[in-house]
Amino acid sequence: MNLNNIKNQFPIFSKKINGKSLVYLDSSNSSQKPISVLNKLDEFYRYEFSNVGRSIHSLAVKATNKFDETRVSIKNFINAKSKDEIIFTKNATESINLVASTFGQQNINKGDEILITELEHHSNYVPWHYLRKIKGAVIKFAPINEDGDIEINKFEKLITPKTKIVGITHLSNVTGTIVPVKEIVEIAHKKNIPVLIDGCQSAPHIKIDVQDIDCDFYVMSAHKVYGPTGVGILYGKKKWLENLPPYMGGGGMISEVKKDKITYASLPEKYEAGTMPTAEVIAFNESIKFMNSIGIQNLMNHEKELTNYALEKLKKINAVKLIGNPKNKAGVISFTIKGIHPHDIATILDEDGVAIRAGHHCCQILHEKLNLSATARVSLGIYNTKEDIDILCKAIENCRKVFKLK
Amino acid sequence: MDLKELYQDIILDHGKSPRNFGKCKGYSHKGKGYNPLCGDQVEVYLKLNDKKKVEDLKFEGSGCAISIASTSIMTESVKGKSFDEVKEIMNTFLDMIRNTSEIQSNHLDEDQKTKLMSLSGVKQFPMRVKCATLSWHTLVSAMEERKIEVNTEVID
Questions:
Q1: Number of domains chain B is built from
Q2: Entry pTM
Q3: Which among B37, B66, B125 has the least Cβ separation from residue A359?
Q4: Angstroms from A148 CA to nearest CA on chain B
Q5: pLDDT tens for each residue of B101-147
Q6: Could you tell me what percent of chain A has a pLDDT over 70?
Q7: How many domains does chain A have?
Q8: Dihedrals φ, ψ of A170, to 5°?
Q9: Which residues on B lie below 8 Å from A364 (Cβ)?
Q10: Distances (CA, A) of B17 to A75, A115, B71, B72, B136
Q11: B156 part of a folded domain
């Protein structure tokens, strides 16, 4: 497959930014959308719209089936055992909140420990913090080393008889570290501790197999895998989802409602209260089809080649300091430039049509550890090319010119 | 949009070598400002004299060239001024950044006006306005003896 023409499938690349062709290097934040996803959204709203799971007219039946097709696609995409283990949420953040809240309600008491890592996005810390506030739980952070790798032996030592759950990212949105989650799960499971994996960043970049990893929960957002905003996934092993209490209450998640008693729907509806982002879930299937049509292995090869090319070129620019050097790295590259704050870098790059992110990337714990207040971040998507990297590097040189640095 | 207008020499100079950086001895007031979107933070230390005028003003913090330069230029613009005068200068500064591109104040000399005006390019970059205004809000908050941290996402 010729991936160089893939930009043609993304209408946004026909638009000029500040008079320049768009070089989009902010896919870790959110990816751009292929035409098939956009068409499906339009088509569904225009010609196929109905709510799902309620009415029995033809449109409703068709929409309900389409909705369910996405669930099956996701099940296959992450190799879950059953489609009932796939819950639609608003985003990965909501998925983590769902687990923290329901698991916490049932299993966390004062003094119990939640083990996360210094790599985590705020969305895999703040929901656990609520349990610290409400239940008196203790949050422990497994440390990373200078390369941005989790120190597995230190992680293991932080597990105590009080550890009740582990929350860990699969892929860092700052250093690009691919975390050996299978090993982590194995360590935790030896002590019967369940593991939640934040797969937001891994989903667009690497093959996911939740049965092979054997994790208890896995979360991701559609908008980072070329899908619409407003949809997320919670994968949970049946043994957990069946036994944890419900999260949001409302229509669609009940079985029977009496004045003195309410029973709940079975999976997956138990966790899907209220009208869901129907069109977005249905269009999400198109982004999975798009990824499958490329093939995860082709996608990984393309991004690996591009990441290596980018790292090589960036290393040649003296003023650039790369953040982290993990053993296994995906296309997420954070850096600083001596004498220029990341925000100024982002503004100057934007003038050349190069979109990157600057700041702490919702990882203040990680930035504190690295003793940085902000970094500039380049994150790759399937549509990026070597030419994009060349334009980036040229734009970085321009930063130094604007700042009149030698 | 014009990068040269944004990153003028005055800004690059103050961004690289900020004036009045540090803590002033025996400060009477202190304010803390934070921009949660980018992590910029600033702490201003000021000493008011018996007449409630700014006798000394220094700052510490980290941030982009715009935020450091704006803070540095601010410290040079308000020394010797009363609270009301500082507020008036801030208002004309905010008005320049957001609307007019002009500084109108009887409390500033030409050199001070020129330096403040060098930040007028920020207007073309709406995402960067908060970089330039954080320290001013922090200063006024400190003078008003408000104990809370100024947060760019709470102020307008």
A1: 1
A2: 0.94
A3: B37
A4: 21
A5: 788 888 999 999 999 999 999 998 988 999 999 999 999 999 888 77
A6: 99
A7: 2
A8: -85, -30
A9: 39
A10: 56, 43, 12, 9, 19
A11: no
